[in-house]
């Protein structure tokens, strides 16, 4: 009967061709020590490198904990988005944690700490923590996200994302359905955090409990800086209508900041071209 009861938390993992990393990711969840039950929901986007076979082995070994979403073909549109959404739909727990298949957790009490906090503080919707960044096989301090206070709100988050995906736990089913644009959005985690933050505050636990693996060849990192800025600008413009006027104004400030960066970059490139032209004439 235990398996039929609602799990306290659903651990959401998505993966695609993560053969070299997925075992470390799953083991970080298996070692969790909790006084509540949890489930691990893993979505595989039709991997071809042996990842799927590893997942099946784990599911057979831990049938009461692991459930698989084995997609027969990759989703159309934004890479991984359909895998993310269909796997999220399988998460029935009171809370949801996120972790990509190439990242991993390092603290066996991670879930217990985060769920304990959210249970004791119903006015909070999200809880996240510090992570290390793994780059070129070396662990580094996180210089990607900005430093913020232990408690923040949607007004802070609207200035820019500071939550690593592998660190977050949030209350499930805070709203009925995702906006239509979510399916097309090039950014999923930040959009989801913003939507959840409409319903409560955000807690930061100042402890290292996970590792974010940075790939220079990832879909996002491999794009030119100018292209990333344009994608982000379009993304912000498309999500702003889902929030109240005050949050829209903060998002507009973020949009203006990116526009200034883009314009400055375009101007610098133009000046460089002009200088090169006159040098050639000489």
UniProtKB/TrEMBL annotation:
Pfam families: Glycos_transf_2. This is Glycosyltransferase involved in cell wall bisynthesis. InterPro entries: Glyco_trans_2-like, Nucleotide-diphossugar_trans. Keywords: Transferase. The lineage of its organism: Bacteria, Pseudomonadati, Bacteroidota, Flavobacteriia, Flavobacteriales. One of its GO terms (molecular function) is hexosyltransferase activity. Residues 10-151 form the Glycosyltransferase 2-like domain.
